[in-house]
Fold this protein.
Amino acid sequence: VECRAILENTSIQDTIVSQYLSEGEKMYYGAEMLSYISKTSFDLSLVPKLLNTINMSIKKSKIVNCHSPVLTCLLLCEFISYLGEISVHFETKCRRTREDLMIFCRNVQEAKPNDQYVKFLLGQKDSRGRAAYHIAAEIEAYAVLQSPEVGTIVNKMWVGKISFDSFFDYSSIYRFISNQNPDETNPFKSFKA
């Protein structure tokens, strides 16, 4: 907690926005630090500078130079979404920048449409252990999750191994009716232990 307290300092926040987010290689670290700043303690006078820096990084494609471009975009989206919620004055600008970040994420994913590459991008984790796809779902950034590659990845993750058992093996009624001991009246006795 003491280490995070330094992030409440306005000059530190300005340094994060000015130096970390303006350089592609350091953007991920800047996004991580922003994610640890209490949204209510972020200096709102820095919001225009923050949004401008992010927009310039998108236009110049600086985000691609960091080691986790999609995760960086999602962390920034998460942060600016909260800023938009607490400041009506910046709500529209934050929403617009978030949309630009989502478009950038999709462009990064589509640059190399390969299941393994997209799985790598969306599987990267932040310092809290949250995978990029988890953050995207949390902040409702569904545009990042709507691609054929993501669909393939999710199917592979959730389908599991194929079972060749019949439907009747899992039916409680069928097992009760076909029970070998007809004088048994307890339907749960027909289940295998």
Q: What stands out?
A: The radius of gyration is 24 Å. The chain has a mean pLDDT of 81. Residues 46 and 152 are 41 Å apart (CA to CA).
